[in-house]
Automatic annotation (TrEMBL), chains A, B:
The keyword Nucleus does not apply. This is Proteasome-type protease. Keywords: Hydrolase, Protease, Proteasome. It comes from Paragemmobacter straminiformis. One of its GO terms (biological process) is proteolysis involved in protein catabolic process. Pfam families: Proteasome.
Length: 241, 241
């Protein structure tokens, strides 16, 4: 499994992904699930992936190849597409096509492959936008009412987001919220695992403002996790029923 | 959907279930999902149900009918079965049979029906036992290492249980823990809904020690829910990253 979460806030976007992939329970590996594309000052795009690794890797490779093609056009490169909506459509159609190809290969074994993605970005002169792309290529977008999107193992980490994330949440609080959301998920589901990739895209920066890989032994993350456990236990102890 | 949780503690067992059932999103009803069987001083059994209502109702009706049959035997009545392990087997085999019957009826429409149950109980001279019965009739049992079992929409409410529930948790704290676990689930998933049914079975009481129906407007539950939200927000605010 996987857990990725993206927040669309007044001050910017905060993204967090884990890195665990597994084929069954006994074949566990570490793969990056967050990918960034930048044309600094013009455009920034970040994509997070969940689902079958063969689908997500091929999709990302095709998108990357199109960006790097010297003859790329606004129709083929997500760094040249006229709008972020168009970028979401391009990621969606690439994902849907790869998924259909892989699905066909697997159908002989009565198996299927699926994947979903979160696309975050901003182009010069445009708004920040955050999309969740479904396996079929259709998508939804984060709004003021629902300023976060999740893919993968999303349930364990949702209560904390439901309670603290608003469009006006500061970027510092947003980082804390996604890390605590991940912490709850890591504790409850072994198929989500460290290290983590964190990215912050500030509003109108048109580049990735901050990235951080948080390794398994990260002292700061461990301290935060313990402080949160303590805060929960203390809060629990104080409640009367 | 449904959310039911059972805790097996040194001092007793604490059970909580919601009451929402739905056929699709637009046909929502309220049905009790917690059922108790008592032979006070001799035996107490509580069963919580999740899944297709047609399966769970028929299963419970057959179990109840067998208990009330004046010619019931240790082979047919869960109030006469020699051990709680045998009770779990009887509930499992009844559930599996009903499920298979309903599944066969539905197969013509390419649909299926499934259900799972939690069985908690103690007989005179025996230990308290807590089982999770799978749709196929097999089951697992709560232990010191894993003192709680959940059925239905279990993920949202698991982090709080993971953090605070131990076999030595007091019954008062246990009630608080299951109510807060339910509170997180209610907030994040509309298909789990009030009212709630709470039951406590104290060790060696051999009867249901306490039952409480918590209605949608319950002032005490609302106050607890708000206190918990406040504790989470305060705890969140105090954490530094």
């Amino acid at each position: 499994m996987t857990y990725c979460v993206g927040l669309l806030l007044r001050d910017g976007m905060v993204l967090l992904s884990d890195t665990r992939t597994n084929a069954g329970l006994d074949n566990i590996s570490t793969y990056r699930k967050m990918f960034t594309f930048e044309d600094p000052g013009e455009r920034v795009i970040a994509i997070m992936t969940a689902g079958s690794l063969s689908v997500t890797q091929t999709t990302m490779a095709r998108l990357r190849e199109a960006v790097e093609d010297p003859e790329s056009t606004p129709e083929t490169s997500i760094l040249k597409a006229p709008t972020l909506l168009k970028v979401a459509e391009m990621v969606g159609s690439t994902l849907a096509q790869v998924r259909a190809d892989v699905d066909e290969k697997l159908s002989a074994m009565n198996q299927g492959a699926s994947a979903s993605m979160i696309v975050a970005g901003q182009r010069k002169g445009g708004a920040m936008r955050l999309f969740l792309i479904y396996p079929e290529g259709n998508f939804i977008e984060a709004t003021e009412d629902t300023p976060f999107l999740q893919i993968g193992e999303h349930k364990y980490g949702k209560p904390i987001l439901d309670r603290v994330v608003k469009p006006t949440t500061s970027l510092a609080d947003a980082k804390k919220a996604v890390l605590l959301s991940m912490d709850s998920t890591l504790r409850s589901n072994l198929s989500v695992g460290m290290p983590l990739d964190l990215a912050v895209i500030e509003r109108d920066a048109l580049r990735v403002s901050q990235t951080r890989r948080i390794e398994a032994g990260d002292e700061q993350f461990r301290a935060m996790s313990e402080a949160w456990s303590k805060a929960l236990r203390d809060g629990f102890a104080q409640i009367n029923i």
